[in-house]
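Q: Hi! Curious about what ATP-dependent protease subunit HslV looks like structurally. Here's the sequence.
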Amino acid sequence: MSRVALRCSLPNALLMPEGYLGGVEIHGTTILAVRKDGVTALAGDGQVTFGQTVLKRGAVKVRRLEVGEGVLVGFAGGVADALALLERFEEKLREAKGSLLKGAVETAKLWRTDRVLRHLQAMIVAADRESMVLLSGSGEVITPEEPLLAVGSGGPYALAAAKALYRHSGLAAREIAEEALRIAAEVDLYTSGQVTVLTLGEA
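A: Let's find out. The predicted structure is below.
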């Protein structure tokens, strides 16, 4: 019997440590989701690393899915693995008629039980206009208490910066996401300063 753990109301939805949640090792990836004043922003840095070598600084690790009113997704981990999982997630999201949480839970069930998928090394952050979730290979769907969600090697720095900017500035969601990732890039060797940001609900 499959088990999918649904965790909600985490004060800081941040997954980063090596070997955490299904043995996923995250290097060279920082993804940050922010929702503020009705606008959702999802930002990803562009760096791809292999071991200690930087292979690329301008990769795009965030996508827009045209499902329902729109869903933003970002991935951390192996690129090929993540793209395979994103394809399954989009299928489940369509089956769920755009319901982010239902689509995420069904994807996590499949991820955990499928003989091939359960070996894929990646994590997915997904957000729509009202909510955001993180899917892990250990069969968990995690939602944050505060509308901030970060994964990757620079995740702790991006999240800390985003929390400060969210609470103590008048910056919009897009500006918070961009600035937080740039701050993370200043202290994390695996995060580049090249940032891609997608939004929902922005005028």
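A: A fun detail: DSSP finds five helices and 13 strands in the chain.
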